[in-house]
Write a structure and sequence with these properties.
By secondary structure, this protein is mainly β. The chain has one helix at 34-42; strands at 2-7, 13-19, 45-49, 53-54, 57-58, 75-77, 82-84, 93-95, 100-102, 114-119, 124-129. The mean pLDDT is 93.
Length: 130
């Protein structure tokens, strides 16, 4: 079982489907390019994605695949052959090793009775009580 991300005309994931593994043969025993096959059936660009890949790391110790799982709303970057989440704030920059967005300053360590949220106007972390 494999997962495939269907992309719109802007390379945004609109749907994730479960399909055949890339090495799985069709009913006649032929080798199939499943990305191409699912693209033809759906009318959308289709890219294989892995539920086990997050932030450029394979969660089970394998080889990371396309940096992140291509979840709905994620962008597929063809130049990097990778999925990235939507940019949360204009000031955040993309970490190209992990393909995740990073704030301009690191988040302070979380306290026991509060947490932090990002304040884009002043580009600072704001302490919020539970």
């Amino acid at each position: 079982m494999a997962h495939y991300a269907l992309l719109d005309e802007n390379n945004i994931v609109t749907q994730v489907i479960v399909g055949k593994d890339e090495n799985e043969l069709d009913n006649e025993g032929n080798v199939v390019n499943w990305e191409q096959s699912y693209s033809e059936v759906t009318g959308q660009v289709c890219k294989r994605t892995s539920r086990n890949t997050r932030h450029g790391i394979h969660l089970e110790g394998g080889t990371p695949f396309r940096k992140n799982f291509g979840d709905i709303g994620f962008y597929y970057d063809a130049d990097w052959d990778a999925f990235r989440p939507p940019q949360p704030y204009p000031s955040w920059k993309l970490d190209y090793d992990k393909f995740v967005w990073v704030a301009p300053i690191p988040m302070p360590e979380e306290g026991e009775t509060f947490f932090w949220k990002w304040g884009e106007v002043n580009q600072e972390w704001i302490k919020v009580d539970y």
